[in-house]
């Protein structure tokens, strides 16, 4: 400061107009300098104490970790019975698990048990891959934590896809099914599939030598699982071994979901002569199988498969898309530029197995423009009950009269709500099949700009897309032509592996081909009169039956069709919500598909069941868990959650221990499946 003052003084000396400062002015100047210094020190102190965003993040992470480790410590320190004590204090005493209950009643392991998982529930692991998959040898790409989906999504999609020409492995990639009971006991950590059933069977004496998980690569066609992996031969050998080492007791087979169709294919394959079949002879099933207990079986297909292949969505995806369109339509993984649904469509259209669940039987089974077997159905106001509340009798529902307009369930796809509700005589349709040659070859700039998210829709051009929409409405009889139009590569592959019609004459030699073996309407059951077949499925949950679609805004890389989530019935109890018409079912498989064959198609001696195998329909009425402590519940009828349904597990254990369908009480029905089956005019 003295230097500054001297400098100022010298300047003032040279300026004749300036006089020397007075003592008061000097004092005021010193005060100002002091204030500046103090202010500077205060700013420095404040900047040191400022709470930055990084500090906040670190504090939050630290708190979460501290709480997590504290809770983990308490969980490990508390007695093992404490969680059950808390649950029972809130909900009352818990019932014994089925295995414990039946063990007390004297049941013991008898018949060997074979589990056949369905689509997507079995784990898949990498055996060979490209450079981007380095470090993933024998690690799960499907099932488990799904960590690779987030770490390297494009690489994951590449390795989960199959060759679009052959339906088998792409060059340099080998993904195979996980083996053993761990293949499908849990789909993801904490999300059981077969684990609860396995644990309860173990209660009465079962172990791995008397239980077998028939794991297979659920992406490829059924016959190709034998061609590539010899899976069908392994199932045959394991069943023979288990029967031989368990005192000659026949096996109880428990397929779930698509595994029902896979095992139907197996029963024809194992009896057919080599090389197409397993060469077991016409009595193999009679000698080795006691019962087939099908859980949630899509015998006649599911409409959900159509929407999945047509627009890569179902009801839940459509709702999510309407809430947050940018998440699914644009970039789920923004840094990677990954259009989510487009990649899902590109990947799943290489999975030939999805075509096994396309609706079978055409309009005869699923209905036409103005009729359906479920005609007159309305959502049932089931008496609300939580778990533990017994059902006093069958069909305990308060069924409403239909709404003002009847629902045309036979119209699986309708473009517009007005089309879905109009009489067929009022609908003007332009046949897209007539336009096939010109429309599908239209030019579209998307072929050059979409790169990795290119789908077959980009070959159709604007004309082809409009042609699909102008046909207005599609029944089950039109679906194959529609898919041939929009997914020709997929259809070219699967036409050699699956069929969807109704056989006129089952004695025709053509039905010896494996493409017919998974269609119950084009094949016969084995000659095994002592065998029993069960159809076991949940009911009481709205299940997708048909859809209202709309054209999407034009965009190069978008899928051109979407479920119209704005289409609603206008009433709380309407069958139409969010562009989806629902019927009775287990949330995935409608009752008609799960129950018809055992209710009528195979009931007694029919042309599809010439030996008169006994069939039983066992429905399980859905009851949601009473509270969060009950998890997914013990009385659920949902498609996967039913695997933890205590009543179903009891039925399975009883049959495995030697009981018959009659011992279980025969049919157990809550819906109108027998009434709907009678409406289907199918010669038997």
TrEMBL record:
Family the UniProt entry places it in: Belongs to the AB hydrolase superfamily. Lipase family.
Stored InterPro entries: AB_hydrolase_fold (IPR029058), LACT/PDAT_acylTrfase (IPR003386)
Bilayer topology annotation: Single-pass membrane protein
A single Gene Ontology CC term: membrane
One MF annotation (Gene Ontology) recorded for this entry: phospholipid:diacylglycerol acyltransferase activity
EC numbers: 2.3.1.158
PANTHER family for this protein: LECITHIN-CHOLESTEROL ACYLTRANSFERASE-RELATED
Record keywords: Acyltransferase, Membrane, Transferase, Transmembrane, Transmembrane helix
Compartment(s) of residence: Membrane
UniProt name for this protein: phospholipid:diacylglycerol acyltransferase
Highest classification ranks of the organism: Eukaryota, Viridiplantae, Streptophyta, Embryophyta, Tracheophyta
Gene3D superfamilies named in the record: alpha/beta hydrolase
Pfam families in UniProt: LCAT
Transmembrane segments: 53-75
Domain of life: Eukaryota
